[in-house]
Specification:
alpha/beta, six-stranded mixed sheet, 14 helices, 27% strand
Length: 523
């Protein structure tokens, strides 16, 4: 979509989509006029270690400047090889800068530094604070492998694009310490709240402007609503490439992703969803004062692009050759939100339930990072669906604990922005949700013959137990969910859901249909 922007005002009718304009002005390859400057920004965000999608993005991503809004990596030190593959992709893609996302900090600080040092670009977080290493307990520094992060993370920088100075600033999520998987790794770190982050950003903007920079891009992993507040309460920022809340922002709409700074200049915001399912290209025209006068926001759907075989080869060198495990005959579309049923995650629950012989299997819907696609499927495809190395645990769980966990999870899901942690994928259960009230209203245990047994959710039994399979993240680590059983009461397996799913598909030895729905019902 093309728009023309007045420095202090906008003509609303020019915001409407016009096919003829797009076709005529789609290319910005011509030389800019004397009093203007044209550039394009290729962008990604929240890749979450999706290596298959990265091989496709590399075939399509374009832009004079290429950046990321963070969460490129996934998981802790057990995912070190994946994170190394991510860096290889970022270098091949020519990404010059990235915001610091919470998943970058899932690892120990030394592991982050080892990965970041291989990145040809820079990580940015103007709002991240850390105690001085020399002032910390030396034993804890050694045990947690802490390092001075400021040696690997910048607040801002200047890059050159087509002979012009462009300023890059980055921000980490204000809830970073709540979102990382191992808080103990980063006890010496904190992130400023939104008000202070705005001051941090403005301070960096002012530094850049003093150096003659009048075109500034903010790489933000603070989330869409916070980005809107930043846009309207700072001056000098032209573009915000966002992440963290997984918004899929198409085109340009005034009041949504076309806002105005506190001095009235336009600020263009965009974000490309999650898991590398989309990537973007933002075309921009600036006037001689560095004010945006024209913009066009395009999204590419990753699955429509072929795999880049060079990147595929490099990833295979790092992660090993994937094993072909089966064939997907058909697959329903994956959900777009966390408050829809996810047949792909339900299938993974079936694999856990049947392979481990449990009554019930559960999975965190927001942990489902990819989906099954028709055709041959290999172990790498399944690993992308379940990339976290959260090993499987099995425990005897009381009916009351199970019901209470579902109640609390559903209530939290419907009252939070982005609907996190999301409705749970299940096998051996079905349940009913009132979306208006955000409440659990009914639940049935489904035995292995398919018979339903109602559970009294108002008076669940404390003396009735079900054998439940789920990952350690959900079972006993307590992140986003009630703890169902302490670690010492669980059977803890040395493998993740992807291993179980591969084994299940091979055992079935037949073309698979991904259509496992009807397990969540809505009033």
């Amino acid at each position: 979509m093309n728009i023309k922007i007045s420095p202090l005002n906008i003509n609303p009718q020019l915001l409407s989509f016009r096919e003829s304009k797009v076709s005529k002005q789609n290319s910005l390859e011509k030389s800019p006029a004397k009093d203007s400057f044209e550039m394009s920004i290729g962008y990604v965000n929240d890749l979450h270690g999706q290596t298959n999608n990265m091989t496709r993005i590399l075939s399509g991503i374009k832009g004079d400047l290429r950046v990321s809004a963070g969460d490129n990596n996934i998981g802790d030190e057990k995912n070190k090889a994946v994170n190394l593959a991510v860096v290889k992709f970022m270098n091949l893609a020519g990404i010059k800068g990235s915001a610091l996302g919470n998943h970058e900090m899932d690892t120990k600080q030394k592991d982050f530094a080892d990965t970041a040092s291989k990145f040809n670009g820079s990580y940015f977080a103007a709002n991240l604070n850390q105690d001085l290493i020399e002032e910390e307990d030396p034993e804890e520094v050694e045990e947690q492998e802490r390092i001075q992060l400021s040696n690997y993370i910048k607040k801002s920088a200047i890059v050159e694009v087509k002979g012009e100075k462009i300023g890059l600033i980055g921000t980490a999520p204000v809830d970073l310490t709540e979102r990382i998987t191992h808080p103990a790794y980063h006890k010496d770190c904190s992130v400023d709240d939104l008000d202070d982050s705005i001051e941090d950003i403005q301070e960096e903007v002012d530094k850049l402007r003093k150096q003659g920079v009048n075109k500034i891009v903010l790489l933000s992993h603070m989330g869409n609503e916070r980005d809107k507040i930043v846009a309207q309460n700072t001056e000098g920022i032209d573009v915000i490439i966002g992440g963290h809340t997984h918004e899929l922002i198409k085109d340009l709409k005034e009041g949504e992703n076309l806002l105005y700074s506190r001095t009235g200049e336009p600020v263009v915001m965009t974000e490309a969803g999650k898991n590398g399912n989309y990537f973007g290209k933002l075309n921009l025209t600036f006037d001689k004062d560095g004010v945006i006068t024209k913009a066009q926001n395009n999204l590419g759907e990753t699955r429509l692009f072929p795999k880049n075989m060079i990147n595929q080869y490099i990833i295979n060198q790092i992660l090993g050759e994937p094993e072909i495990v089966g064939y997907i005959k058909s697959a329903v579309e994956p959900p777009l939100t966390l408050i829809e049923e996810n047949a792909h995650a339900n299938f993974m629950c079936d694999a856990m339930r049947y392979e481990l012989g449990t009554d019930i299997a559960l999975w965190n819907n927001s942990g489902t990072r990819s989906f099954f696609q028709e055709g041959i499927i290999d172990s790498r495809d399944i690993k992308d669906i379940a990339p976290f190395e959260d090993r499987i645990s099995v425990a005897d769980v009381s009916e009351k604990k199970l019901v209470d966990m579902f109640k609390h999870t559903i209530e939290a899901t419907y009252r939070t922005h982005g609907n996190k942690p999301g409705l749970l994928a299940v096998s051996g259960l079905n349940y009913t949700v009132d979306p208006e009230e955000g409440k659990l209203t009914a639940m049935n245990f489904v035995d292995k013959d398919g018979n339903e047994h109602p559970i009294d959710i108002e008076n669940p039994r404390e003396d009735k137990f079900y054998k439940v399979a789920q990952d350690s993240f959900m079972m006993f680590e307590g992140a986003d969910f009630d703890v169902l059983a302490p670690k010492e009461e669980c059977i803890n397996y040395p493998f993740n859901k992807d291993f179980i799913a591969c084994r299940y598909i091979k055992r079935l030895n037949t073309p698979i249909e991904i259509n496992q729905t009807g397990r969540i019902r809505f009033e």
